[in-house]
Specification:
Chain lengths: ~260, ~240
């Protein structure tokens, strides 16, 4: 039996009385690249944050690679997951943040080495070899010994991507990875993400306002509005022939803004 | 360190002046310096206890589970809300009533460490809370354990934030060690009072006493500044 890599089953997320995700059903296949678009406040970031377990959910179940994430099987019953269970499942997921969140007291290389050494128990030499290779693939091998404060925004985000790859996730989550960047640095980061998408090695979930980029790299695009996934489809269908009225409005606004 | 030079020069000048002016210096100075040794001993031991308790209760209040947070809060409230001198009297004069006799040194160090640890815990808690939330989120995304999160990511950044507050408290602590003279320890202050009773050189003796405390405080201040510079060296620099 094949199962989706990511599955949301009636996931409910609320902040107090405010329901941000309303019984969300949503799944992503292994190797699929899915972009999430939608107006600000529609719950896009929240989808990634609950999957990364940065936020708890109030109802429903999330599955990763066929296994429940926020629940676990005990004697055939689904019960609330233990911390150890969450950590085991979570190791398959990596996330790249809008604001990079690099560790400022560590060099680019040390940022990349941190999780392999202290979470996966690799030797420093082993971790360093792999981190250097990853920094090289994001074009920053020569900045390995620089601290985040010595790097441009685009460089910091590329280090953050290398750091995420160093823990060998199967799923990559990107939350508006270029929104905090000066325009001239957007391209270098998108280039790295494009290569990851095209490699086919990762299941990717990308929240973005870069419509052109989403159209180009995604297998599927999902439009969120008000906590619901209102429409989804292949990029050409969704952008070329939108059905939902809100999506039409959203696209015309975004395209007007350029 | 230009300021070090100025301060040392000033001190050398004042000492020189004293030697020249106050001929009886060598009569009372050795006793006061012996007191200084005691003050330094009490200071070092209580600073160690103060830092240990600050970090423990500060982390407890910022990140502990319910029970630990509750315990830390009680500790902080009790020792911030009571006078250091009264706690010292409890340690030294009241505990023996319950069959626990503490040496003056032990009582002094315990009272000072407990009292300042309660203030330090608030500094540590504030510093931990001030580390951006995104740092914690990154550690979760990298699947780090809560222990590594604290020791590798949060504390190293919190230390940079807490150093000015902690070094101020350390200076306050050194000045507060004068209270141990109340439980028979012959520290700088006690020695000064004794020497004054013997020699009646009030101005000279208490000028020297002031200078000694000032010098100790300067050590802490420069140490704190050096540490702060060390821990913030990568945080704000743009090249
Ligand atoms: N920590 C929080 N507390 C309260 N409300 C929140 C919090 N985080 C997000 N929200 C609310 O949840 C909704 C969805 O937020 P988000 O997922 O960040 O939207 P998007 O990423 O699509 O802009 C918004 O209305 C936002 O104000
Ligand atoms: Mg968002």
């Amino acid at each position: 039996m094949t199962h989706p890599m990511i599955q949301f089953d009636k996931v409910l997320k609320a902040y107090g009385a405010l329901q941000v995700l309303k019984d969300l059903d949503f799944s992503v296949d292994k190797g699929e690249v899915v972009s999430i678009i939608g107006p600000s406040g529609s719950g896009k970031t929240t989808v990634l944050r609950v999957l990364m377990t940065l936020e708890g959910i109030q109802g429903g179940t999330m599955y990763v690679d066929g296994e429940p994430l926020n629940k676990m099987n005990v004697d055939g019953q689904l019960v609330d997951a233990s911390k150890a269970h969450i950590r085991r499942i979570r190791s398959k997921i990596g996330m790249v943040f809008q604001n990079f969140n690099l560790f400022p007291h560590m060099t680019a290389l040390e940022n990349c080495n941190e999780s392999p050494i202290f979470t996966q128990g690799k030797s420093k030499a082993e971790a360093t070899e792999e981190s250097m290779r990853l920094l090289d693939t994001v074009g920053l091998a020569d900045k390995a010994n620089h601290y985040p404060s010595q790097l441009s925004g685009g460089q910091q985000q590329r280090v953050a991507i290398a750091r995420t790859l160093a823990m060998h996730p199967e799923i990559l989550l990107f939350d508006e990875p270029t929104s905090a960047l000066d325009p001239e640095m957007v391209g270098e980061v998108l280039e790295v993400i494009r290569n990851l998408a095209e490699s086919g090695n990762y299941t990717m979930l990308l929240v973005t306002h870069q419509m052109g980029f989403a159209r180009e790299v995604s297998d599927r695009v999902c439009f969120f509005d008000g906590g619901f996934m209102v429409e989804q489809g292949q990029p050409n269908d969704l952008f070329g022939n939108p059905q939902n009225e809100r999506l039409k409005q959203f696209l015309s606004k975004v395209l007007e803004a350029g | 360190m230009n300021r070090v030079a100025i301060v040392s020069a000033l001190i050398a000048f004042l000492v020189g002046l004293s030697v020249a002016t106050f001929s009886e210096l060598r009569v009372f100075l050795p006793a006061i310096l012996k007191g200084a040794v005691v003050t330094v001993q009490v200071s070092i031991l209580s600073i160690a206890l103060f830092i240990f308790l600050s970090v423990l209760a500060g982390i407890g209040r910022a990140r502990g589970g319910r029970a630990i947070r509750w315990l830390s809060t009680i500790y902080v409230e009790v020792f911030r809300g009571t006078s250091l001198l009264v706690i010292l009297f409890w340690m030294f004069f009241v505990m023996p009533e319950f069959g626990v006799t503490l040496s003056p040194m032990f009582a002094g160090v315990a009272a000072i460490g407990l009292n300042f640890g309660a203030y330090g815990a608030e500094v540590v808690r504030g510093a931990i809370t001030a580390v951006p939330k995104g740092q914690t989120e990154a550690t979760i995304a990298l699947n780090m354990s809560p222990y590594r999160r604290m020791t590798r990511i949060v504390l190293p950044q919190a230390i940079a934030i807490m150093i000015p507050g902690m070094s101020n408290l350390t200076i306050e602590l050194i000045k507060a060690t004068a209270l141990v003279s109340a439980v028979t320890l012959v520290d700088i202050t006690y020695a000064a009072v004794q020497q004054n009773q013997l020699h009646y050189r009030t101005v000279e003796i208490f000028l020297i006493t002031m200078m000694l405390y000032y010098v100790l405080a300067q050590f802490v201040r420069f140490g704190g500044e050096a540490l702060e510079e060390y821990f913030t060296r990568h945080l704000n620099r743009r090249v």
